[in-house]
Amino acid sequence: MLFFVNVAVFASETGQAGDSLAGSSEHFVLPNPFMVLPFILLLALIATGPIFYKHLWERNYHKISMLLGLVTVAYYIVFLNDVKSVEHSVIEYLSFIALLTSLFIASGSILIKVNVKAAPLTNVLFLLFGAVVSNLIGTTGASMLLIRPFIKMNRERMKPYLIIFFIFIVSNIGGALTPIGDPPLFLGFLRGVPFFWVIDNVFVIWLLGILLTIAVFFLFDISNKKKGSSEMVKAKFPVELTGAKNLIFFAIIIVSVFLDPKVLSWVPSLSPLPFGIREIIMFAVAFAAFKTADQEILKANEFDFEPIKEVAYLFIGIFLTMIPALQLIAHESRVYNHYLTQATFYWSTGTLSSFLDNAPTYLNFLSAAMGKFGLDVNKAVDVQHFVTVDDVYLRAISVGAVFFGAMTYIGNGPNFMVKSISERAGIEMPSFFTYIIKYSLPILLPIFGVTWFLFFRG
Amino acid sequence: MYTLDEALGKKINGLCYGNRILLPFKAQLLKVVVESDIITDFSRSSKGIQVVDQKDFLDLYFLEYKRLSDSLSEYEAIKMVLVEEGKDVFDLGNHRKVALYLAEKHQVTIEETEADILFIE
Fold first, then answer.
1. CA nearest A359: which of A104, A171, A186?
2. Distances (CA, A) of A375 to A41, A110, A371, A378, A384
3. Interchain proximity B76–A298, CB inside 8 Å
4. Using CB atoms within 10 A as the burial measure, which of A42, A63, A175, B56 is most buried?
5. CB A365 within 8 A of CB A333
6. Residues of chain B positioned with their CB less than 8 A from the CB of A162
7. What angle do CA A372, A373, A375 make, to 5 degrees?
């Protein structure tokens, strides 16, 4: 957003050396603003491909994503002689995809049956439960584990809004309470934000966001006159869990999230390798979960690697092509940091998190906010000082990064996976644009506006 | 030719060659889901599935696929809502949900979808 507002400034400053990349102490040369084009092109293709040239896109999306990513990599290495920026992105991508892959496979080997007749109140309770659980096993884990039972519960009364609200609540807003909930909060935790700071400071905003979204959902759901299946209530238990041993894999994944040398000093660093012990454990768990999975459960879940393959290919392109965009935004927000208010941080972090990956967006705006007070995001002492003295900025950035991930299918990793699982179940999901125009703009934007008015005005 | 119940009861397999599937019964298709493709248009101009009228079997060409086996995993089914030939298509009780799994040697196993499998008509 800032880039578009200040494009002239960007153009005049391009090529000047010396700005600090958020998340590192390295120095880099600002990229040419035109290098944002591969990222814009990739986003445009992700938005239009599945609608206008679906099968051509399906056959070629991985090549296109890789190619556009490589254009950016080549530019950085050949023209800017900047390997570090690419390296940082690759490291973040590997952490991201290791977590998503392991949770995807572990959850694919668990079958949950909720033998409760679907009704508006039951759905409200289910979504509330999902919102809480997403703080314990992450929005990705909760989405993968709960989307199938949610669809099964509602199979007699299925309409796309049910899935959309699931994405809003379980895949995004729900996970705003703990660093496990959503990757940006975890990045903050790695930088020195205390683990319980989020729940202590964001709970009221979270509660309001969840209650307002669920209230709108309830209005939608009571107008759905179709009844839930009565067969569901004939079952012996209200909830049946098969493949419970995979919950152990889940626990290992969650614990391994903390196995980072920045969190626990005894954890060895594998530098210069672009991954650590954590990623090795996550991929090993993914392998073990798949190899030991019950074949009947895999069949019942129609397990297929395609959804995670799609996310892996698209997001490597997104992570690489967004490097220039993030650096330019970080630079710009630092140049203008004296003019940036809590409201600017809330809306800017949010708007960019709707389309960019929210983790680096969070970090760049955190860096800019701390820059206002002469603090360095790379120093844990500075971060801890920042969260005690100027915590309203961190609240605005945290809420913006997590909540706004629900605005588009690409705002957060699980959104795409939930969409894919739903389509494979025969549910016709809205297109990229319909999702935004029909659901996220009219429903989420007013809710986020209320959040801004009550908590981040000024 | 078998009826759908005979094909399911006797576990008669269908066949798959490239993008073509042959099923040992005749039926009216109402909805087909392949991966994330939801196909409900079976008219001649449709780019999704071409249904060729054969005397004793159901002959389907998935026009957007070169080889179905390249796209579907062993756990993934092609799911169909269909009505057996001769039965009243307007009677919802005649709507049957069937899952097709690609097996070895061009075989296609046909199963009525269990409650566990996600498939919304």
1. A186
2. 35, 45, 5, 9, 10
3. no
4. A175
5. yes
6. none
7. 105
Cross-chain residue pair A148–B77, CB shorter than 8 Å: no
Looking at the complex, does the CB of residue A374 fall below 8 Å from at least one CB of chain B? no
Rounded distance, CA A450 to CA A447, Å? 5
pTM for the full model? Answer: 0.79
Task: State the residue for tokens 């040992």.
Answer: B24
What are the two backbone dihedrals, phi and then psi, of residue A313, each rounded to the nearest 5 degrees? -70, -45
ipTM confidence score: 0.76
Residues of chain B whose C-beta is under 8 A from some C-beta in A?
31, 33, 35-38, 64, 72-73, 75-77, 79, 114-121
pLDDT of the residue at B117: 62
Q: CB B75 to CB A303 under 8 A? A: yes
User: Tokens for A239?
Assistant: 């909830």
What is the interface size between A and B, counted as CB pairs within 8 Å?
Answer: 63
Q: Read out DSSP for A332-379? A: HHHHTGGG--HHHHHHHHHHHHHHS-HHHHHHHHHHHHHHTTT--TT-
**pLDDT score recorded for residue A244:** 83
Cα A241 to Cα A50: distance, rounded to the nearest angstrom: 35
Residues of chain A with C-beta less than 8 angstroms from the C-beta of B72: 304
Mean pLDDT of A154-161: 89
Distances in Å between the Cα of B12 and the Cα atoms of A96, B48, B82, B100, B111 are 45, 26, 17, 12, 10
